[in-house]
Fold this protein.
Amino acid sequence: MTTPPSFRFSFAGLVAVLAGIAGLVLLTIAVVRFVGLVGDAVEGTTTSSVAISSTNVAATSVAEPSAVAIDTPSVTVTDDSDTISITVPAAWSEVSGSGWVVDGREQGPAIVAAPNVDDWYSTWGTPGVFVGVSTTDFAPEMGDFSDVCAMGKTDDRSAGILFGTVQSWTDCGTEGSNFYVFVGGPSDASYAVLVQLVSIDGTGLGSLEKVLTTFSYER
């Protein structure tokens, strides 16, 4: 996945805290969603890019509330290496957790959680989240999704052990979903974290807050 200028990978003002993180590019009609700066992917799930369907759901903008805790049932999931742990809505029970590969080089562990991982990669109509940890010198960018989304707010965010920046996007694709990108890391900047989350029901900020607050990385 590649990145546009903000976040499903993009990272500008966070350079002071970390070395950066990577992005993810979503282009429509060949809307392509990439998890990473130049073609990164969670190994074992998809390759660099996947064409995004433009025929799923009728386009409707979803208004997002403030970041509040969500009361829906949740589940804790881990990547294949058992180093990343996050809590997500129980419906996001399908998990892919192989390494995060960018340009053929593994940058660290990663996890995708969604109702259907393949659909999450290929459409804007499936909610879910990607979390990648960069333990190398890889410095991704937030990315620019203005071709397929409307840019929303950019906010600094501190949650759990993570400090960083969140870029929001709205009305993404024909599905009209909301999309959030977080780039940050722990206070000691020992590694960088990229989070990309798609929401279709107005609970995106709450789901993002849950992911960031419960994020754990044990090397």
Remarks:
- Residues 204-214 form the longest helix (11 residues).
- Residues 1-70 have pLDDT under 50 and may be disordered.
- The helical segments are 117-122, 204-214.
- The chain has two helices and 14 strands.
